[in-house]
Amino acid sequence: MNSYRTTAAYPVLVAAGLEKSYGPTRALAGVDVSVSTGESLAIMGPSGSGKSTLLHCLAGIERPDEGQVMLAGERSETRVPPDGAWVSVEQLDEPHRSELRRTRFGFVFQSGQLLPELPADENVALPLMLGGMPRRQAVQKARGWFPPLGLAGMEERRPGQLSGGQAQRVAIARALVGSPQVIFADEPTGALDQVTGMEVIDLLVTTTRRQRTALVVVTHDEDVARWCDRTIRVRDGRLSEDHRTPDGAAVTSAVAHAARGTAGRPAGYDADARYGR
Ligand SMILES: Nc1ncnc2c1ncn2[C@@H]1O[C@H](COP(=O)(O)OP(=O)(O)OP(=O)(O)O)[C@@H](O)[C@H]1O
Ligand SMILES: [Mg+2]
């Protein structure tokens, strides 16, 4: 049995009343959202609906015009926030938000995020080295992430020598290596074919769940959203619905489905029962 089932989940990131405009464009018009330890949250919605803006506000990349983003205090090794306290991410200045992003968050983007001149293990080790860990120790820790992500033997390859799916798994390792509280992924499967995308999202969801890391995934792909515990939909900067999605066992069987080229609902999976309708 997975540990996430036996350990209570608690909210790790809570946002309320988020508003953000770019000139006349109202990208966020009052969004409330929270994500808990070990939980995966999918953000869906049409192009231009505000998904990336929401992710950027949650991750402290951008500051909302209105509203709050609260991150649970957990880490003693960082100066931000004070131990045990919640921190208002949106109130921090850029250097502190930058420190927060480096020490408490991990990021996976669509593609092109690995440094082409560095081998895969050093790409993964980079956040640790930026945090001051000696290179040898950081690379050793980074290498520990290769087998569980199906990357054994690829430690010394340059990104140009990896497939798209392998490169995304290296990016996932890099997001996980610093044991962040939250991983943010904006279209992590957007540049991959369907089967590879399903493998990548499965790894991302199951690994973060095991680590008790919260996961926020922006996606256009209903199949990707189905992998996550919960989906919220954004339209014109507002949330339009919120419902539960399959559990881990259903996800595993869906991977087998996707691999057979019938991506979608796992066998025996009853959406209405699971969504409580
Ligand atoms: N830096 C910016 N300057 C001006 N307008 C912006 C900026 N960033 C986003 N917008 C606008 O805000 C709205 C929401 O954009 P956002 O990128 O959040 O959408 P999205 O849902 O992520 O879309 P997509 O699915 O195409 O990535 C859009 O109208 C967009 O043009
Ligand atoms: Mg976007």
Structural class: alpha/beta
Order of helices and strands: HEEEHEEHEHHHEHEHEEHH
Strand order of the largest sheet: 6-7-8-3-9-10
Tell me the CATH topology. Answer: Rossmann fold
Low-confidence stretches: 1-6, 243-277
Q: What's the CATH architecture name?
A: 3-Layer(aba) Sandwich
β-sheet strand percentage:
15-25%
The overall number of domains is 1
CATH superfamily: P-loop containing nucleotide triphosphate hydrolases
Helix content: 25-40%
Q: What is the 3D form? A: globular
What's the number of extended β-strand segments?
10
Mean pLDDT: 83
Our count of helices gives 10
Radius of gyration: 18 Å
Task: Describe this structure as you would to a colleague.
By secondary structure, the chain is α/β, with parallel strands linked by helices. It has one domain: P-loop containing nucleotide triphosphate hydrolases (Rossmann fold). It has 10 helices and 10 strands. The protein has helices at 3-6, 51-58, 94-104, 120-130, 135-143, 164-176, 194-211, 222-227, 248-259, 271-275; strands at residues 11-22, 25-36, 40-44, 66-71, 87-88, 105-108, 182-186, 214-218, 230-235, 238-244. The strands form 2 sheets. Strands 6-7-8-3-9-10 form a 6-stranded mixed sheet, with helices on both faces. Strands 2-1-4-5 form a 4-stranded antiparallel sheet, with helices on one face. Strand 9 (230-235) and strand 10 (238-244) form a beta hairpin. Helix 4 (120-130) packs across helix 5. The longest helix has 18 residues, at 194-211. The chain is globular, with a radius of gyration of 18 Å. The relative contact order is 0.17. Residues 1-6 and 243-277 have low confidence and may be disordered. Adenosine-5'-triphosphate (ATP) binds at residues 22, 25, 27, 45, 47-53.
